[in-house]
Specification:
The protein has eleven helices and ten strands. By secondary structure, the chain is an alpha+beta fold. Helix 2 crosses helix 4 and helix 9 packs across helix 11. 24% of the residues are buried.
């Protein structure tokens, strides 16, 4: 392909079929109420289109028919369907933007304005990669579902006293030291490299130790683990790696009931981990009593009791410093 790609060419590469239907027509063909199709479309992250806008494809009709099939056999009701759509939309939107940024950043020189042929080359490369990326996406998603199911089994026995859907988990926050100062002194590219490097290290270390990276917030990551000892191992390894390769981190760990919502976790345990992170000194790991008790005497870990101190919103807490030994 040569010349500047058009919007139609981009849609053809990634969406496949050409748009043929309005939102009213696609709902009628799929046999799904129009009000529900509009809610699904918004949950996926797309704007509501005018009644006469031809923007939907045969693939959209087929997807809605699958939704109707799952609802007809009682697997999902309207609210569950919309929640599933929102989970899918938010996750894939971030994934698509992230992958597009990686590909564009790899292929285009940031020091000059891309030419039409440069943009055409990016689209050609995307066309070649798309089938393999699609297969990798489905494989990774199924593997993540299996991992999620395994984690649920792992915490089921420990959480018998917790009312569903609450679970008992170890929660960790890791925060880059002096990020605000660094963000003022680095240019955009260097800052992006710092953030991506931190997130990459955290993701690798959390996965290698059997935890789950819940979310990243630029200079901060939130992770969970079924076992407090795994959470401590993640924290110690992350602190060592970040101190060696970057500005260092402060980390807070807590163990207790959490409420999982939309892939995130909430509750007092999460708040406590965040508060411990806020009061930790640079390069320090602070843990609550639950984590400290679980790792006390474990090889390679030193636990040091600190004085009790007030923590905003949680009263007096007893923090412990974790160190590698």
């Amino acid at each position: 392909m040569t010349g500047r790609p058009t919007a139609e060419q981009i849609e053809s590469v990634f969406a496949g079929d050409r748009p043929r239907y309005t939102r009213i027509q696609v709902a009628e063909l799929a046999g799904v109420p129009q009000s529900l199709t509009e809610r699904i479309w918004r949950a996926l992250g797309f704007a509501t289109l005018p009644d006469d806008a031809v923007a939907f494809t045969d693939a959209d009709v087929e997807s809605l028919r699958r939704v109707r099939s799952m609802m007809d056999d009682g697997s999902m009701d309207d609210e569950t369907t919309v929640r599933m759509a929102r989970a899918l939309g938010q996750t894939t939107a971030r994934l698509a933007q992230w992958q597009a940024d990686i590909l564009i950043g790899t292929m285009l020189d940031p020091g000059r304005t891309p030419t039409d042929d440069d943009l055409a080359a990016v689209l050609d490369t995307s066309r070649r990669l798309l089938p393999d990326l699609e297969r990798m996406l489905v494989h990774a998603w199924r593997a993540q579902l299996a991992a999620a199911g395994t984690r649920l089994l792992a915490v089921a026995d420990m959480a018998e006293e917790i009312s569903p859907p609450r679970r008992t988990l170890a929660v960790g926050f890791a925060d880059l030291v002096s990020f605000t100062r660094l963000s003022r002194s680095l240019d955009e590219r260097a800052l992006a490299g710092l953030v991506e490097g931190f997130e990459s290290r955290a993701s690798d270390i959390v996965a290698a130790n059997g935890g789950r990276l819940v979310k990243t917030l630029g200079d901060e990551v939130l992770f969970t683990a079924a076992d407090p000892r795994r959470a401590a191992a993640i924290a110690l390894e992350l602190a060592e790696a970040t101190d060696r390769d970057g500005p260092g981190v402060r980390i807070g760990l807590a163990h207790g009931p959490v409420l999982p919502v939309m892939g995130d976790v909430f509750g007092t345990t999460v708040n406590l981990a965040a508060r411990l992170t806020a009061i930790a000194r640079p390069g320090t790991i602070l843990a609550d009593e639950g984590v400290a008790a679980a790792v006390e005497g474990a090889p390679g870990v030193e636990v040091v009791r600190m004085r009790r101190r007030p923590v905003r919103g949680l009263g007096m807490v007893q923090p412990y410093v974790l160190r590698g030994s």
